[in-house]
Design a protein that fits this description.
With 176 residues, the protein is mainly α. It is built from 6 helices and 4 strands; from the N terminus they run H-H-H-H-H-H-E-E-E-E.
Amino acid sequence: METLNNLKEQDILQLLSEYRSQLRRMEFQQEDLSNKIRVFESILKSKGVSEEQLIDYESKAGEMEEEGPADAYERPRKLKRNFPLSEWDKLIINNLKEREEVLINQEILEDIREDLKKKNMYQSEEKAKAKLNQCLVKLANRRGDLVKVRFKGRGFAYALPEWMAGNKLKEQYSKK
């Protein structure tokens, strides 16, 4: 922090300009990707694929590989429990407790979407996905309230820590 205070005014202005430029670039990329997703979704809909089939495919695409949910993702981390739980965090944790099985992002979002709408916390699909990812990072990486479990080809599913036996997921909590 002290080195930042030693920067000249011109250097700070240049850095601000660079950071704002990077931010605009990322916003453009996000918009571009969102447009591509909408185009592909419309193509699928024109071919007769329903919204339900699309969501079902996204949530179950990881199950296409033969391997099952594997070991918990292990890396050394310092847990900080001083981050307060938000309404989103509480919905995510309660959803996992109700379902009693590991869930991927898309399944969690499907399950909590109606509750978010009732509480006027749902703005758009893109914002909901981004907020969900932020909460999952906080709960799994910073607070330790969730555990990442390797999931068939889709990266990770999320589990509660008490569902683990060492680095392995207890069988009763794996996908049914």
